[in-house]
Amino acid sequence: MVITVxxxxxPAYEPEHIARALxxxxxxxxxxxxxxxxxxxxxxxxxxxxxxxxxxxxxxxALGGIGAGARDTARVLGIIGKADPSTALVLSMHYIxxxxxxxxxxxxxxxxxxxxKETVEGVALINALRVxxxxxxxxxxGLPATIARRTATGWRLSGTKIYSTGAPILKWYAVWAKTDExxxxxxxxxxxxxxxxxxxxxxxDHLGLRASGxxxxxxxxxxxxxxxxxxxxxxxxxxxxxxxxxxxxAIFVAAIYDGVARAARDWLVTFLQExxxxxxxxxxxxxxxxxxxxxxxxxxxxxNARLIESFASDFDDGFQLTAIESNIIKLTxxxxxxxxxxxxLQLTSNHGLSxxxxxxxxxxxxxxxxxxxxxxxxxxxxxxxxxxxx
Length: 390
Description:
- By secondary structure, this protein is α+β, with helices and mostly antiparallel strands.
- The chain has helices spanning 16-38, 43-51, 70-83, 85-103, 109-121, 243-274, 288-316, 323-348, 350-353, 358-367, 376-388, and strands spanning 125-129, 147-150, 155-164, 170-179, 186-192, 198-201, 215-224, 229-233.
- The chain folds into three domains: 11-124, Acyl-CoA dehydrogenase/oxidase, N-terminal domain (Butyryl-Coa Dehydrogenase, subunit A, domain 1); 128-236, Butyryl-CoA Dehydrogenase, subunit A, domain 2, CATH 2.40.110.10; 243-388, Butyryl-CoA Dehydrogenase, subunit A, domain 3 (Up-down Bundle).
- It is built from eleven helices and eight strands.
- Strands 1, 2, 3, 4, 5, 6, 7 and 8 form an eight-stranded mixed sheet that branches.
- Residues 132-222 form the Acyl-CoA oxidase/dehydrogenase middle domain.
- This is Acyl-CoA dehydrogenase YdbM.
């Protein structure tokens, strides 16, 4: 029995947006090898996603979007992640921002409505730019070096952001910066892409997720309006993370890497069914040892499906969840995904690591799950400290 997230309901009961994602998946998957090889950005994927209304998946229905919750969004990300995880990662960051807009009391309504309208009408993506060369990820603490200076006519922004996923296509940046006020505040400012003084340095040359366009964005005295504050507070007020941001980020990232493992599993099954070594005279799939390893892969993917489904459904139903719980699920799902692909490589020998076969690419992509925030060591330390009361 094969358990998948994408097709767990009879087709007649599938929401329309799931059907649209499934329809696009084959097209997106066909483009993935070339974009991976060239580290080129898949602009055409986002044009297709926009045409199908899927960029507005988490935009509230009242604002013209689909209004999907975490469960359906995780399913879409799993489908697209299986086809091309680079595209799915950019998409996930965009989805998270619109979920936060819809649920946060801190996002200015005028700004969230403007961005919702643009997303419904065209290709208008947003991502949070947070990571810096010296700071690393702010998830581990510390103040950003990027600074917003207040003037009579607008904010003036200077700083450098690295690993800015989707940089080639983003229309909006939610930039993590500190102010130059007498009492420093820190938080997010909404900055339009392409303003004078902004430049993208194409620094992303990674082992995996090569088509995600996670380049460096440099702000050199960039001017933007004073009313573009999203959420700027005293540093101590950020000790408790935004609930929506922290929980859905972890589960959406997990869904993407689970999708990668499912792509690897599908290729493996076909390979084992078709590969007939001369000394065996039968497909590799006939060997008990092979069946056992594939069964182990199925077990890991079945666990992943249940974890993602149950957690996302609980979030949608309003259950009280914690960031630590979501981080543990991300840790478990991504490590299951990595192990599933490693087991697939074990069965395929040189074939699996050949660049003519997709398993090599899936392996490079799935390894990124181990370094993607929240990282495993941080999750374990947080869970351990909570259990020990320290």
